[in-house]
Amino acid sequence: MKITLSFSLIIYSFLFFSCIAKTAVNQNTIITIEEKSQLDSSRFDIKMFETNSYKQKLFKQNFKKPGFDTQYEEKRTDGTVIRQWTVFPEQEKADTQEYVEEISKEWSPFVIRKKYDYMGRLRRWSTTFRLESINKSYEYDENGKAIKITNYEEKFKHSFADIRELLLKAKGIDIYDTRQAIARRVNHRYEDPIQVYYNIYVMDKKDEKNDYSIVIFDDTLEIKEYRNENDPKNK
Questions:
Q1: How far apart are CA 233 and CA 215, in angstroms?
Q2: CB 135: neighbour CB atoms within 10 A?
Q3: DSSP run (H or E) holding 217
Q4: CA 230: distance to chain centroid?
Q5: Radius of gyration, CA atoms only, the chain
Q6: Which of 19, 94, 100, 129 is 20 to 30 A from 184 via CA?
Q7: Between residues 62 and 89, the one the model is more confident about
Q8: 8 Å CB contact between 145 and 128
Q9: Is the sign of the CA dihedral 224, 229, 231, 235 positive or negative?
Q10: Neighbours of 204 (CB within 10 A)
Q11: Is the pLDDT reported for residue 171 higher than 60?
Q12: Contact 63/53 with Cβ under 8 angstroms?
């Protein structure tokens, strides 16, 4: 009787914890990347930043003086680059400095940018594609709640991800690798609806004279190539 009871308890426990695990996985799978940014509870490590920045010239004499810009940069073995610096919106007031952190990777056009307040609390999270704001940005209050969300994709039919997939299939070009191509988005929608396009400057590994541009129209995904005298990259 005891053996049967113990065995039943084992089976019940297994099923119970399996359900918990399955529920947790299901909950995690429905959290999108954008939602994760809202849940980003990262804090800026001010003490570590001060320790790293201490190596900077004149840091001892000037740190925490109004307007003194302290910077730190770290390059990791996987190609990730982390840049941190201080910002002083109100230089004459104490405890108004803010901290900015940028996370990028070698040969990638993406940069994740975070802004923290003087206590190291996350106040803004955004992503750029070669300095252009993309996807959504999030602003937070002092409690970490998202109070403002800006969607930069609303006025476009296609995203950089769409263009990347299209070019990979059509021409084997990856716009996420700046060694292959440099892409930008041009928006003249209010002047002419068809003049919203992606301009991709494609680089030849062997000879830069063979570099050329590709234009992909946002509305139709029509692809046009411009070479030599027809190349609009300088326009």
A1: 10
A2: 19
A3: strand 212-217
A4: 33
A5: 25
A6: 100
A7: 89
A8: no
A9: negative
A10: 11
A11: yes
A12: yes
Amino acid identity of residue 97, one-letter, is: Q
Per-residue pLDDT reduced to its tens digit, 73-86:
889 999 999 999 88
**Mean per-residue pLDDT for 133-159?**
92
Token representation of residue 54: 């201490």
Would you state the pLDDT for residue 69?
64
The pTM score is 0.71
Cα separation, 88 vs 103, whole angstroms = 21
DSSP helix/strand/coil, 119: coil
Residue given tokens 């099923």 in the structure block: 15
- Interstrand relation of 80-87 and 71-75 (parallel, antiparallel or unpaired): antiparallel
Q: What is the pLDDT of residue 207?
A: 87
- Residue 17 is predicted with a pLDDT of 38
Q: Which amino acid is at 66?
A: P
Look at residue 6 in the predicted model and tell me its pLDDT.
44
**The two three-digit tokens of residue 78, written as one number:** 């996987």
